[in-house]
């Protein structure tokens, strides 16, 4: 039997509403608790909220590249977020940016389009 993901909290950050909806559907299909955001402002609001308990931040690589140091600083400064893993979502055209994202502190990356198998394995990143 697979790992129980019903207690795993994921902040999903994707500017493209259609893509966000597709990934949201995969995450909820695997029973993750998902908070989707579609803008940088919403992402920072979620990170700075009174109760920012997240296990995984699943973000478009473009968001991480544009705001990497700010995102990682927000995570490291908050005791409740220090355990949080940042996973980048990339397209085949963005693969060359993976090293930069990892340099900011991302734990891993997934290549889009995402599969149910990739989503089920997100749990390996929970610290």
Keywords:
single chain, 127 residues, alpha/beta, Rossmann fold, 5-stranded parallel sheet, 5 helices, 5 strands, globular, CheY-like_superfamily, transcription regulation, transcription, ARR-like, two-component regulatory system
Task: Describe it.
This is Response regulatory domain-containing protein. One of its GO terms (biological process) is cytokinin-activated signaling pathway. Helix 3 (61-77) packs parallel to helix 4. This protein is globular. It is built from 5 helices and 5 strands; from the N terminus they run βαβαβαβαβα. The chain has one domain (9-125): Response regulator (Rossmann fold, 3-Layer(aba) Sandwich), CATH 3.40.50.2300. A 5-stranded parallel sheet has the order 2-1-3-4-5, sandwiched between helices. The chain is α/β, with parallel strands linked by helices.
CATH superfamily: Response regulator
Strand order of the largest sheet: 2-1-3-4-5
Tell me the count of domains: 1
Enumerate the spans where pLDDT stays under 50 for 5 or more consecutive residues.
Answer: none
Query: What's the mean pLDDT score?
Result: 91
Number of helices: 5
Report the CATH topology name: Rossmann fold
The CATH class = Alpha Beta
The largest β sheet comes out as: 5 strands, parallel
């Amino acid at each position: 039997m697979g790992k129980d993901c019903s207690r795993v909290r994921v902040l999903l950050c994707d500017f493209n509403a259609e893509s966000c909806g597709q990934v949201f559907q995969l995450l909820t299909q695997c029973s993750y608790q998902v908070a989707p955001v579609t803008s940088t402002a919403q992402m920072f609001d979620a990170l700075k909220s009174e109760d920012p308990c997240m296990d995984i931040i699943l973000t478009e690589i473009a968001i991480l590249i544009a705001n990497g140091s700010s995102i990682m600083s927000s995570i490291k400064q908050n005791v409740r977020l220090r355990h949080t893993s940042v996973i980048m979502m990339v397209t085949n055209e963005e693969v060359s940016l993976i090293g930069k994202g990892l340099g900011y502190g991302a734990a891993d990356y997934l290549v889009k389009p995402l599969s149910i198998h990739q989503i089920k394995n997100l749990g390996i990143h929970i610290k």
